[in-house]
Amino acid sequence: MARKTKEEAQETRSLILDTAEAVFGEKGVSRTTLNDIAKAANLTRGAIYWHFKNKADLFDAMLKRVTLPMDEFTGQPDSTSSCGNLLYIRERTMHVVRLMAGDPRTQRVFDIVMHKTELVDDMLPIRDQHLEARQGCLDDIGASLAAAQQAGELPPHINPTDAAIGLHALIDGLFANWVLNPKGFDLAQQAQSALDCYLRGLATSSPDGACSARKTD
Question: 53 and which of 57, 78, 92, 130 could share a cystine (Cβ 3.0–4.6 Å)?
């Protein structure tokens, strides 16, 4: 058999990834075998193993084809921006929401990760990567909120770390519910409303309210 060209090999790899995405979405990751993916792609198991070491390696490659929503929230706030730090946070978050709402592949992969994956055994490295990415996102949000606090846009009793966790949970939770039933609500409209309420609540909260600075003994 003639050796495949680089272009043909890439086409086969893309076919495997596209098929894995579809089969994972239908059966769940733990119930899907490489043989299932090979059959669905009309390929041999050998063709799968030519490109990927195992299912975890294939799953990782599928993840790397997209940027999951909250991983998109990167960069530091511009403290000299005339729009203000809270508005920067709002705009960055809504940018992430619009990316999610407009990219079917990201929606499918997010649904697989959130609802159809057991991060155990050979998938533990994927869990570690997910936790690392989440922490990076929380750090960026926290830095933005801290800059808002330093600029006087948030009261001094607000704990930026706690507030960042709340904001991440709010948007990530909306995504997780929306991919289960995209017709259930308008993602962008609901995210904007919830985000505005959250940021307004932070800006006007009292010292004994949620997200107040932690007390130490």
Answer: 57
